[in-house]
Amino acid sequence: MTLSPIRARDRLVDDICRRAVTEGGMLCMVTGFAGTGKTWLLRKIGERMFPTSPVAFATADEFEKDAPYSFVERLMSTGLAPFRVIDVHRSPIDIARESIAEFAERDRPELQTIIVDDAQWIDVESRLVLRYMVPRVMGLGIFIVVAGRLPDIEAAPVSFFADLAESAPHGENIVLEPLTVEEIQALAVDVLGASISPFTAETLRNATGGSFLSVDSIFRRITPQERNKLHLLWDIPIRGVDPVHNPLLAPVFELPDPARLAVEIVSCADTELAPHVVREVAAHLDEVVDIEPAVTASVLTESGFGSTVATRHSLIAHAVRQTLPRERAQAIYRALAPSAHGFRRMWYTLSGATEWNAELAAAVEAFVTEAVRARNFEAVNDVMRRSLDIADGEARTSLLIHLALLNMQNKTVYSVLDLIDEFEALPPSAVRECIILTIFAHRKDQEFPVHRLAEFLAVPTDSPEERTLQAYAAFLEVIEIIRSQDFSDLGAAIDQAQAMIARAPRHPDEVDNPAMRWMVAPALCSLVLEAFRMLQLVLELDAATISDRLDEFEPRVLGLEPSSYKIDALTPLAVVAMTIGEIDRARRLSGVGVDLLETVRKPWAAGTMRLIHAHAFSLTGSLDEAAELVVAATESSGSTIDVETRLPLSGLQAWLNAARGVPDFIDLEAQTHRQTAMSWQPYAADMVITASCERARAHGDPDGVVAASSPQKVRNLQGTQRGFLSYRAHALIDLERFDEARELIEAIDAARSQGWQPYWGSVDWLRARLVAAECAAPRFEIDGVMGRDSVSGGGRGSVSSGGRSDKSKSVAEAERHFDAALGDDRFPLPRALTLRDYGIFLIGLGDRDRARSALDHALAIVRRIGAEAYAPGIVEALGTVAKMGENLVGTLTARELEIGRLLARGRSNQEIAAELFVSPATVRYHVSNVLRKLQLKRRSEVAKVFQDAGETVTR
Q: Which is more confidently placed, 642 or 546?
């Protein structure tokens, strides 16, 4: 799991500050390129340390870097030591010794924090002072934090800070690297509440040099209107980025021309180069090159004892390429091409070309053919995009269509969405229309052009290629209906698609265009369509019949060879299984599909398959493992076609975090608005609302549950298992709105099997809680035993008339429902909470032993599955059980207490009578009173009650 940089750095600050306090001081060195967030980190450390120790913050200044002792004076001006103007003619050691003496002599606090920023600008004399002082004061209750900028820090004498922090027992050396693609994606979820694709994250990384501050700034420039559509989009607007001001370029601009040429050559190569190759390229350019100054400035790095050189970071190479004039870059690429092979030679050749010709076209075609065979579609896109920049006329049109068809094959059409206007400008043709329709299928922020699709499918044609394209588009129509709220046309669309496939070629070789042959797979497409038909049957047949159909159909799908078609056929079967309550089947089928995702081409339903698997796992397995599955699914959701899974994944993550007691920053209110505003819905469309309910319940907020599940928030939901209704019924019971709760429970009971599933708790659990809550207050007496108030948080409504007999019947009814609810052990969390509520109910009856047993079992389950949010409440209830024994023992008279102690030691009535010099009849009378007051049936149970009450029991 990749943690958001904000959260990761918060944790880092917590850890560093905790260590500083525990160890009574330490040295922390922070280095990184400009923009990586060094000052942000220092500020956080200062804020965290301020309540614990005085904080002195000093920033070195480039303006003073040539003024001797200027930084020491600046440091003293913070109040760290008496301020004085230092005689520049004195030696650094004398000044350092005086400063140490002042530290030792002053009445200082137990811990003091010194924060130094921009250490690369500290003047030389001050560096020498600090070099002497720091090792000697590290153990004097001083927490020193120093930040310096790469690459400046490496060549400066102040690098001793990093060496000391690395080697000292109380030291920490932190290097802030440019953000990775995964970190940028995690930051997007944190700041924007939506995932972004790896392609977008890579674009941001290249545009900003991976600068934490720049990426964060771009995210915060996104408008609320844009943010509300991020869950539907493949890209985000990038504002406020100027390549010339990339922080990684500063040291490049300071290099002499021969050294800068070395950087330009290596940056264009974008890989390690042997020094002789750099010189050969420079010779082709008829220019002088010098590698050494670039290495000294840490812009280039050597490896293999100088056998190769590369840019210090790949982002430096990208930044340099962005600033090169086009003609200059082309010249370098032409000079690089003879030294390269494979993709790099092709890339250099294209990047250096000034015009398209037959030789270049043949080379591109050969390369693309081989890359497709190797499934290296990233290289295909790179090469063809570069080719589009050069070609024109018919050649460019051909490349454009070929690029689209290849991305349709690889299910990466989102990478050509920016070309929609160019496709629309092409002359009308079947392939153009099919490409445009596929692009619209990926643009879920816009309405799909249903009428345009219908017109395309209605065009009569005998062409094998055009029939192939129509069959593909008919399949696409089925996909669009499945993603909508209305399945009424699904059967007709499947029939039409099957007919189109029957008219299309049966074998790929019947299609002349090689780029379209992948579309010809009639048997597999037909099987997937029949699997899709199962989704419609859920609306028409009962659960038992659907289960039988699954039994018949499942072996056909599982028997397929691994392919994207197999995943697309497994997905509707898993959805149907979840819909009819067969969660084990859903988990098994989705597990098969998720395993296949790593080995086959992308299917249509990659996101949905991962979501189903994570969802089923969260309901039946470890919550921590389920959370890992959700993170993996979320990270991949930026590049899956079914973008509609992004919101349910966000909701499932929030649900898991709430149940596990893990804080998160997901804005569920905004997510609910986005989900309910959509005219099409995914699997588990109510996941966000269910997460809101879980978050409120975990915090003991029944009003929050009722608000989250209000009718106006759920009225547009169609693709839902209505788990929020379970939460709502429990909340109504907690709020003593018993009539509403009873009405809702009856509605839930009527919807069992297909309209509602017991994934979040059974109807019997709800009925048990309702009966228990209604008879819990006022205090009531059952068969001579006074019950206690429930501590469940349930309502205290009036008890219906009818006396002791009616109350006994209510208790018996509640027990019967609890027993029935506990008979289903498929869903660990609801089972644990049912046991918790049963234990609390038994506390109210005074049945300590059974209450303890139920609560112990509940606690074991929540600890096993990781539902730590509920552990404290169960522990509290167990504490109530322990106090019960203590309170009951306190009700005994002195004589009863005396006899109770003897009973606890195992004495018989005769032995007690002899020891106390009373008659056996008197002992029997007192023993009866003891058992009644302790609410026990057997004398053997007395010892346990006395032990719980803190009484010493010896035999």
A: 546
Over residues 55-61, the mean pLDDT reads 89
Phi-psi region at 950: left, alpha or beta (left = phi > 0; alpha = psi -120 to 50) = left
454-511 pLDDT, tens digit each: 999 999 999 999 999 999 999 999 999 988 877 888 999 999 999 999 999 999 999 9
pLDDT tens for each residue of 64-87: 888 898 988 888 888 776 667 888
> 97 and 228, same structural domain?
no
Distance CA 568, CA 533 (A): 12
> 84 with 191, same domain?
no
| CA angle, residues 690, 691, 697, in degrees to nearest 5 | 90
Across residues 553-578, what is the average pLDDT? 96
Query: What letter represents residue 296's amino acid?
Result: T
CA distance 539 to 546: 10
Of 142, 176, 210, the position where a domain reaches its end is 176
Lowest mean pLDDT of 147-156, 162-171, 296-305, 456-465, name the range. 147-156
Q: How confident is the model at residue 801 (pLDDT cuts 50, 70, 90)?
A: very low
Q: Total domain count for the chain?
A: 5
CATH code of the domain covering residue 916:
1.10.10.10
- What sign does the CA torsion over 626, 627, 630, 632 have? negative
Q: HSE on the CB side for 454, CA within 13 Å?
A: 6
CATH code for the domain in which residue 814 is found: 1.25.40
210 in Cβ contact with 177 (< 8 Å): yes
Q: CA 303, CA 312: separation in Å to the nearest integer?
A: 11
Kindly state whether residues 377 and 236 are assigned to the same domain: no
Confidence of residue 621 (pLDDT cuts 50, 70, 90): confident
DSSP per-residue letters across 175-196 = EEPPPPHHHHHHHHHHHHSS--
Q: Backbone dihedral region of 25: left (phi > 0), alpha (psi from -120 to 50 degrees) or beta?
A: left
Q: Please give the backbone phi and psi of residue 28, each rounded to the nearest 5 degrees, phi first.
A: -125, 120
Contact (Cβ atoms closer than 8 angstroms) between residue 143 and residue 84: no
> What pLDDT shows up at residue 244?
65
Domain housing 784: 761-887
Q: Is residue 153 part of a domain?
A: yes
Considering the domain architecture, whether residues 85 and 204 belong to the same structural domain is answered as no
Q: What pLDDT is attached to residue 831?
A: 97
Residue 475 lies in a domain: no
Please, which residues have CB within 8 angstroms of residue 378's CB and are 6 or more apart in sequence? none
Q: How many CA atoms lie within 13 A of 274 on its CB side?
A: 6
Q: Among 140, 161, 176, give the residue marking a domain's end.
A: 176
Pairwise CA distance, residues 529 & 550, whole Å: 15
The answer to whether residue 372 sits within a structural domain is: yes
Return the closest-CA partner of residue 517 out of 528, 501, 530, 506.
506
Query: Per-residue pLDDT for 321 more than 70?
Result: yes
Averaged pLDDT, 402-426: 93
Q: What angle do CA 558, 559, 565 make, to 5 degrees?
A: 70
- Are 20 and 156 contained in the same domain? yes
Do 207 and 99 share a structural domain? no
Q: What is the pLDDT of residue 792?
A: 37
Q: What is the pTM of this model?
A: 0.77
Q: Tell me, yes or no, whether 488 lies in a domain.
A: no
The one-letter amino acid code at 256 reads: P
